[in-house]
Amino acid sequence: MIKCNKCGEVDAIAKSGIVRGKQRYHCKRCEYYFTQPSLLTPETHHHRRHQTTIMDIASALQISKSTVSRALQGHSDINENTRKAVLDMAHQLDYQPNLLALGLAKSRSYTIGIIVPEFINSFFPYIIIGAQQVANPAGYHVIICQSNESLETEIANTNVLMASRVDGVVASVTAETKSLDHFQKFQRAGIPLVMFNRICDGLDVSKVLVDDYDGAYRGVEHLIQQGCTRIAHLAGPQNLQVGKQRLRGYLDALRDYNLPVYDELIVYCNLTKSSAQAAARQLLDLPTPPDSIFGVNDPAAIQTILIAKSRGISIPNDLAIVGFSNEPTSALIEPGLTTLAQPLDEIGKTTVQFLLNEIEDDAILPRTEILKTQLIVRASSLRKR
């Protein structure tokens, strides 16, 4: 059954000759001439991919490619009937505009890239949600790359975003990353780059961070106020600012309260589950184990809780524990984990807003925004009631 492409009529259709090898039809109701597109069927051409182009729409309607292009862009020189016919055919053929081609024509892709180190925990997904809440209303699409804590994958991700001609990039690096040399390609190409959360020294770019030092200090201070005196730190990689600043906050809190710093109570992990477990066991196996542990993040602190409980260690009476990041699991584990909450939504929104500002105005100088954390006290550290 042949249906008019303009009015949808099926009972007033007549054949009207052959045009360019295709049967042409005439709708007597609306006086519209049209041809049916010769669509490939999955059964006969299952091995061929074809994405509808402007040429396909032009061929189906027997009009010029430029007319289709102007109609799709809403030019005023295209009459309403033609524009509607083009839009109807575009919908019928599942036409999607070629964003890369449009970007080349406008010298802008309206696409930004986001590079994060992992999706195992909820931290980065929540930040991405905040980022998209700013990017999408501004007319930007988002390409999300996950590096899986691999420097090699992170380098590959930067290459993919360069090849995709993104207008800007926001990134948080892996635990393996010790320099930002592979990010310099964006600066050389004039593509704005904003770093967040996990950063390394070496590039003069805008940054959005939380006050890791202050959060760590207050977390350790809370343990001291609970009567803890032998406080250990399950520390993060020192090539990352987040690891350095949380260690510095831990050390300064001990010194300010005149508590000794013991080297054996500082154990490093690479932010993986197995590494955190090994570090926790190392601390708990000491001849004189700690009476409390400040974890570099919640996943490390949660692994410590699980190992301690498996050994019959009472939390918090024998071992008080504080984490950092306020993962959703932190409120569900027993006992609930005391932690430092980070403003994830604000991190994502601020990071992308910085990026969009720099995309629109390349004269903006790099700036750093440092956001505060909030101490969330739960049962894992509450000795004094």
From TrEMBL:
A GO term, aspect molecular function: transcription cis-regulatory region binding
Residue ranges of domain HTH lacI-type in the record: 52-106
Pfam families: LacI, Peripla_BP_3
Organism expressing this protein natively: Chryseolinea soli
Nucleus as UniProt keyword: no
Keyword line: DNA-binding, Transcription, Transcription regulation
InterPro entries reported in the protein's UniProt record: HTH_LacI, LacI/GalR-like_sensor, Lambda_DNA-bd_dom_sf, Peripla_BP_I
PANTHER family (UniProt xref): HTH-TYPE TRANSCRIPTIONAL REGULATOR GALS, LACI-RELATED TRANSCRIPTIONAL REPRESSOR
SMART domains assigned: HTH_LACI
Domain of life: Bacteria
CDD domains xref list: HTH_LacI, PBP1_LacI_sugar_binding-like
Name listed for the protein in its UniProt record: LacI family DNA-binding transcriptional regulator
